[in-house]
């Protein structure tokens, strides 16, 4: 098995509406400094990217000196992929990823996303297109199956085509297209594909705890693990994993502390993290018309995704729905956390 070219094989997934710069900075604030954890942007349309202005488009913002971020591209035509890569290269991304997993209808209509899994030769060409425009790693995030079931034989054929085309590494979301984000993920199949490929293969899907992430690498033979929804509930998960790997450094500002572990420690940390995220959203999106509304929407969506890991998560989410300004959101969350200390579940269905 080949390894990823970073010192830490655990990473944070692309999530539309969530993986913005403020969220990536929240994740970074919980990561020990020497740890090279890749964080994806949300998927970005290559039809739009060439005409975007980097400092104006909120989805394209990065933090000062941000490293290890990977923009995820949605598209299938070189005339758009080339200029999109050119536009993003000055931001110094660690690499570029191509989305071959999104099942949404507006994406399928253009033959992007998981539709590309229906034609291995064409998908391989899309990798070649991207490779022609960058010397940074080009990866693909795909699904366990193009249709209803996870299909090992097809996956082996499809990933071989991507490897031959020069893909530097792959992430497999171990659910078929029809399952969207629901139901169990098939880590066994990802492990089998990882064994067959020369390039690193990372597993994604239903990785909720540090133990899950460690098992993916230890027991399933994958090159790494990518976490999506659980990172919105447990943004300190990379800190937990680092500790479990024996890395003793705490994240900056948390020196001498251990990562939250018990249900009540994690419950308390969730509120603290949420307050930090409000500050980060205000810092990165705090200028221009309609910005507060934009930021509030992002915070609500983050709460809707992550609060499922908490017994009273629904009432927490309602607090975020009521707030119309950042200050109202801060006051609501602070009051809620005083009155309803809440325990966190390890895993949810
Ligand atoms: C709100 C949301 C937005 C997502 N957006 C993207 C995206 O932009 N690109 C992508 O490849 N996958 C996207 N996904 C899929 C996740 O990256 C991931 O593959 C999926 O949630 C399974 O991982 P999990 O079980 O850890 O959540 C999204 C998932 C969610 C919940």
Tell me about this structure.
With 349 residues, the protein is an alpha/beta fold. The chain is globular and about 55 Å long. The model has no long low-confidence stretch (mean pLDDT 95). The protein has an eight-stranded parallel beta sheet with strand order 1-8-7-6-5-4-3-2. It is built from 13 helices and eight strands. It has two domains: 10-244, Aldolase class I (TIM Barrel), CATH 3.20.20; 263-339. The structure holds flavin mononucleotide.
CATH topology of the largest domain: TIM Barrel
For the termini, the CA-CA separation is: 31 Å
How do the strands of the widest beta sheet line up side by side? 1-8-7-6-5-4-3-2
- Give unreliable regions as ranges: none
Structural class: alpha/beta
Radius of gyration: 20 Å
Average pLDDT figure: 95
CATH C-level of the largest domain: Alpha Beta
Counted up, domains total 2
CATH superfamily (homologous) name of the largest domain: Aldolase class I
Major sheet size, sense and barrel closure: 8 strands, parallel
> Would you list the SSEs in sequence order as H and E?
EHEEHEHHEHEHEHEHHHHHH
Helix tally equals 13
Bound small molecules, by name, code or SMILES, are: flavin mononucleotide
| Oligomeric assembly | single chain
CA-based shape: globular
CATH architecture of the largest domain: Alpha-Beta Barrel
């Amino acid at each position: 098995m080949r390894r990823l070219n970073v010192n830490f094989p655990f990473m944070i997934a692309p999530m539309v509406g969530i993986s913005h710069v403020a969220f990536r900075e929240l994740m970074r604030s919980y990561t020990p400094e020497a740890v090279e954890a890749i964080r994806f942007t949300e998927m970005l349309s290559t039809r739009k990217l060439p005409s975007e202005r980097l400092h104006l488009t909120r989805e394209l913002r990065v933090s000062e000196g941000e490293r290890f971020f990977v923009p995820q591209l949605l598209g299938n035509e070189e005339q758009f992929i080339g200029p999109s890569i050119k536009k993003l290269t000055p931001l110094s991304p660690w690499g570029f990823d191509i989305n071959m997993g999104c099942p949404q209808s507006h994406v399928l209509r253009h033959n992007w996303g998981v539709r590309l899994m229906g034609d291995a030769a064409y998908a391989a060409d899309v990798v070649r297109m991207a490779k022609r425009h960058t010397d940074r790693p080009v990866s693909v995030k795909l699904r366990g199956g193009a249709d209803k079931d996870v299909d090992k034989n097809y996956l082996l054929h499809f990933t071989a085509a991507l490897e031959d085309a020069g893909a530097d590494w792959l992430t497999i979301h171990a659910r078929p297209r029809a399952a969207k984000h629901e139901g169990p993920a098939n880590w066994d199949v990802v492990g089998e594909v990882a064994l067959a490929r020369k390039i690193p293969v990372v597993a994604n899907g239903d990785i909720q705890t540090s133990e899950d992430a460690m098992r993916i690498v230890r027991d399933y033979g994958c090159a790494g693990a990518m976490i999506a929804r659980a990172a919105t509930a447990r943004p300190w998960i990379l800190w937990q994993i680092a500790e479990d790997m024996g890395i003793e450094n705490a994240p900056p500002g948390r020196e001498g502390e251990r990562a939250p572990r018990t249900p009540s420690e994690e419950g308390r940390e969730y509120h603290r993290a949420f307050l930090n995220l409000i500050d980060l959203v205000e810092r990165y999106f705090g200028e221009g018309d309609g910005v507060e509304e934009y930021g509030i929407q992002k915070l609500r969506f983050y709460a809707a995704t992550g609060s499922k890991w908490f017994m009273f998560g629904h009432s927490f989410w309602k607090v975020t729905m009521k707030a119309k300004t950042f200050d109202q959101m801060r006051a609501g969350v602070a009051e809620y956390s005083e009155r309803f200390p809440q325990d966190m579940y390890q895993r949810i269905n």
